[in-house]
Design a protein that fits this description.
- By secondary structure, the chain is of the alpha+beta class.
- It has 2 domains: 53 residues; 71 residues, no CATH class.
- 24% of the residues lie in helices and 14% in strands.
- It has 4 helices and 5 strands; from the N terminus they run E-E-H-E-H-E-H-E-H.
- The strands form 2 sheets. Strands 2-1-3 form a 3-stranded antiparallel β-sheet. Strands 4-5 form a two-stranded antiparallel ribbon.
- The structure holds zinc ion.
- The site of zinc ion has 8 residues, from helix 1.
Length: 139
Amino acid sequence: MTRVIALKCLRRGHDLPPDDVVTGCPRCRDDGHAVNLSPVYDPSGRRMVLSAGRFDPDERGVWRYHALLPVDLAHAVWLGEGETPLVHATALGARLGLDALYLKNEARNPTGYYKVRMEAVLVARAPQEGARDINSANN
Ligand SMILES: [Zn+2]
């Protein structure tokens, strides 16, 4: 697992500690803006994973990339998240002059949209953070 050293606010760029922030940037929320955070990885760990030239071939879907996720693989659950096909878009490719245009069919994810990848990571991280259950932030 590559260590996340901070979470960066996508609106204002400030760094926040990586622990216990799962509902977006608290500073921007106080200003009335819902803002996502992006993980900042320990650069030495990320370089090591990327220089290996491949991700984990023994895992499937989103979990192939577990070395870059802030989750212990022991907590991973998988319902097919990220195991979506590339579709050769021949007609669109011909219109655009591209022989090898492929589109990722994210509708093949269990929930029908791409955000389920993040949700799988969130569910796996919850017990790691000591959560006893998972509730929607909208409740
Ligand atoms: Zn912010």
